[in-house]
């Protein structure tokens, strides 16, 4: 059973700056020379997460450590939260050093009754406008899944075999999860607190941020294809865990590109569809 709640529509606006120092830290995190970036350069598409962080006060942080969705959210009584997916439309480049107006709102909340209990799907809409342009440079929708407290440990999915041949492997470690979480002001305990991830949420280890997995995808695309993304759409199918190899497979799909991520057991965990200019 699914019920859709009408659009909340409460708009939250913030002033953001695409600061050169922060961009250089993202580059360093990705093992890219920070000195190749300067004010006036275009922010690499996929790096906009530094402009979409929440700024919730400590007293407003959820019990799981998640600092919020960037907009006020009613207490739904659902203590577990995971990223379900996102879609992004890139309309113009964002210059490094530019000032921006960020507009965020809850676009929709859908409630579901499942065999595991109540669930809510929350869709957040973000717009980023450079101050000298009336139309947004970027529009991003993020979908979060909110769930009831875990009553049983998360079962381990059966292995599906080895990762696919020809895939590129990357292994996010504790340091990468910490740096990404810090740059995005994301204190969700499933990414930082191994005991919490295992004992409270029932995961086998720290969970790789959904946004970090997306960033690894967009960086792979940027390096291998070299074309500017105009849209991307991601869907998270299974958790990816710290210190375990992630295999990324990329194929042309007509006028689009399809990227898939597989965990170390060959389980398909994430997919992304990209269009280019």
Automatic annotation (TrEMBL):
It holds the Pfam family FAS1_DH_region. InterPro entries: FAS1-like_DH_region (IPR039569), HotDog_dom_sf (IPR029069), Mitochondrial_HTD2 (IPR052741). Transmembrane segments: none annotated. Coiled coil: none annotated. Keywords: Lyase. GO terms for molecular function: (3R)-hydroxyacyl-[acyl-carrier-protein] dehydratase activity. Residues 74-131 form the FAS1-like dehydratase domain. Its EC number is 4.2.1.153. SUPFAM superfamilies: Thioesterase/thiol ester dehydrase-isomerase. This is 3-methylfumaryl-CoA hydratase. It comes from Rhizobium wenxiniae.
């Amino acid at each position: 059973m699914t019920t859709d709640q009408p659009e909340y529509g409460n708009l939250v606006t913030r002033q953001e700056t695409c600061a050169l120092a922060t961009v250089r830290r993202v580059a360093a995190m990705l093992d890219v020379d920070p000195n190749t970036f300067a004010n006036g350069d275009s922010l690499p598409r996929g790096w906009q997460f530094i402009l979409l962080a929440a700024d919730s006060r400590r007293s407003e942080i959820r019990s799981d450590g998640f600092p919020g969705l960037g907009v006020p959210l009613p207490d739904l009584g659902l203590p577990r939260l995971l990223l379900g997916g996102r879609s992004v439309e890139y309309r113009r480049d964002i210059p490094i050093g530019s000032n921006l107006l960020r507009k965020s709102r809850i676009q929709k909340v859908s409630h579901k009754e499942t065999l595991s209990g109540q669930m809510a799907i929350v869709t957040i809409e973000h717009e980023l406008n450079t101050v000298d342009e009336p139309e947004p440079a970027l529009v991003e929708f993020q979908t979060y899944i909110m769930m009831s407290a875990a009553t049983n440990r998360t079962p381990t999915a059966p292995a599906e075999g080895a990762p696919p041949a020809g895939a590129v492997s990357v292994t996010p470690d504790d340091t990468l999860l910490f740096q990404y979480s810090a740059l995005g002001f994301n204190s969700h305990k499933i990414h930082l607190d191994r005991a919490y991830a295992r004992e409270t949420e029932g995961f086998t280890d720290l969970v790789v941020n959904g946004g970090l997995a997306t960033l690894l995808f967009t960086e792979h695309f940027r390096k291998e294809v070299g074309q500017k993304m105009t849209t991307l759409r991601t869907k998270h199918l299974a958790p990816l865990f710290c210190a375990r190899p992630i295999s990324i497979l990329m194929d042309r799909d007509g006028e689009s590109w399809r990227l898939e991520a597989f965990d170390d057991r060959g389980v398909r965990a994430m997919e992304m569809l990209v269009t280019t200019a």
